[in-house]
Fold this sequence. Notes:
Layout: E1 5-8, H1 12-23, E2 28-31, H2 36-40, H3 66-73, H4 87-101, E3 110-115, E4 123-127, E5 132-135, E6 137-140, H5 152-155, E7 168-170, E8 184-188, H6 192-203, E9 208-212, E10 234-235, E11 238-239, H7 241-248, H8 250-253, H9 258-267, H10 278-283, E12 287-289, E13 293-300, E14 303-309, E15 317-319, E16 322-325, H11 341-346, E17 349-350, E18 353-354, E19 367-369, H12 375-378, H13 388-401
Parallel strand pairs: 1-2, 1-6, 6-19, 7-16, 8-9, 8-16, 9-12
Antiparallel strand pairs: 3-4, 4-5, 10-11, 13-14, 14-15, 17-18
Helix pairs in contact: 1-13
Amino acid sequence: MIRPVAVIGAGPYGLSTAAHLRARGIPVRVFGSPMVSWREHMRAGMLLKSTPVASNIDAPQPGHDLIDFCADTGERRYESDWDLVPVEIFARYGQWFADKLLPDLERVRVVSVDRAGAGRDGFELKLDSGEQFTARAVVVATGLSGLARLPRELAAATSDGLSATGPFSHAAQHRDVSRFAGQDVIVIGAGQSALENAVLMAEAGAASVRVVARSRGAVAFGDAPDRQSRLRPESPFGRAWSLYGLTYHATHVRRLPAPARHYLVRRVLGPLGAWWLRDRFTAGRIQVTDGRRVVRARVEDGRPVLTLSGGQGAGRELSADHVMAATGYRMDVAALGFLGHELRTALSVSRGAPRLDAGYGSSVPGLYFTGLAAAASFGPVMRFVCGTEYASPRVARAVEVR
């Protein structure tokens, strides 16, 4: 019996990797609900920060780009750098990609992954359907699921934890922000998620919205396409030598010292708002408190209260009806509960992220990681959909020759 390769996750990276494996004639089973994070955990009305050309899910054959989806379904064409792609359109594009290339995708959850029994090569997988089977290799492409990054002070503020309806939440917990109409809201963060959530809440009728950022002058926006220098090489993220190198030569990032890699992942292309968000942010009359960090959070008379530190007036307190942390995501293999204890302890990690070889293989032979999990090894391009063009062929080639 030929054992398949299991791909866990059906977002852009899982779909792209599975398509490349199948194109090489490798038996593959892919598990998950297609584009679930994009459909259920991204804000209604959200627009992609990336341009249309940077929003293609890589396929092993032509005819599966975003523009092909538009032509096939009759959607409006998204092709210019000035075109803004709604998250709902992108989610439908991913579903279309799956229907075209992976029609047998299995909408079940992987409960556990462990090494196969003594004397056997591969991995034993259990599904929530009750099925158990052995795979010769496993590719983890679970995206952002379970990786929301929270300030310690917020996490410790309530014994009930964070929730969309409680005093504190993470941006990933909200699909519809219209519930904040008439409320005072504080957003922690300065990246695209924080700034766009602030705008969407202001536009939905929030009484007031305040953004709290650690760095002074942290609220900034990128340049519009016509303001980018034509003397610099083009990349999916804009014109810059650094962006070109990080996009098309990500293998070289692996050779950098670990602190440098982590710095690049954290700082390149963020925290920064999209160029098209600037006017909406200004029109929303959103207040900004920068150069401060949260040192304490508590609930007083049902309202969240933040104590800030840094700059003049240290110890200043802010209160609101709700506090939303738009503080991004952080890879931590300990959060991947489906990986058996033996596998997790056998993984070589750097600040919670698996150390990967040039083929995206981990220290456990046959276990591969792609997408956000690979960013600490290959750089910030792995945080974006266009990274599928770099990652997926390499993963498939590595699995084939294993």
